[in-house]
From TrEMBL:
Molecular function per GO: metal ion binding
Name of the protein this chain belongs to: Periplasmic mercuric ion binding protein
CDD domains recorded: HMA
UniProt-listed PANTHER family: P-TYPE CATION-TRANSPORTING ATPASE
All copies of domain HMA, residue ranges: 4-70
Alphabetized UniProt keyword annotations: Metal-binding
Matches recorded under PROSITE patterns: HMA_2
InterPro entries membership: HMA_dom, HMA_dom_sf, MerP/CopZ
Domain of life: Bacteria
């Protein structure tokens, strides 16, 4: 299928360690191509194969790592 790029809002990040935790939480998601986490804006930009995963599934993995993640409206 096609790659999709979405923005995920992440509340609760306070430092570089939080950014690393987000990367760790999403590292094993099949279909996730790239994730760029912006600590200053509390956002992650994700690119993924929508036949393998979804922005909601990626946000859920971030939630499970202890953050409040929601998919921004496209």
């Amino acid at each position: 299928m096609a790659d999709q790029t979405r923005i995920i809002k992440i509340d609760g990040m306070t430092c570089g360690g939080c950014v690393a935790s987000v990367h760790t939480a999403t590292a094993d998601i099949d279909g996730l191509e790239t994730i760029t986490v912006d600590l200053a804006d509390n956002l992650a930009t994700v690119t993924f194969d929508d036949s393998k995963t979804s922005a909601e599934a990626i946000a859920s993995a971030i939630d499970e790592a202890g953050f409040e993640a929601t998919v921004a409206n496209s």
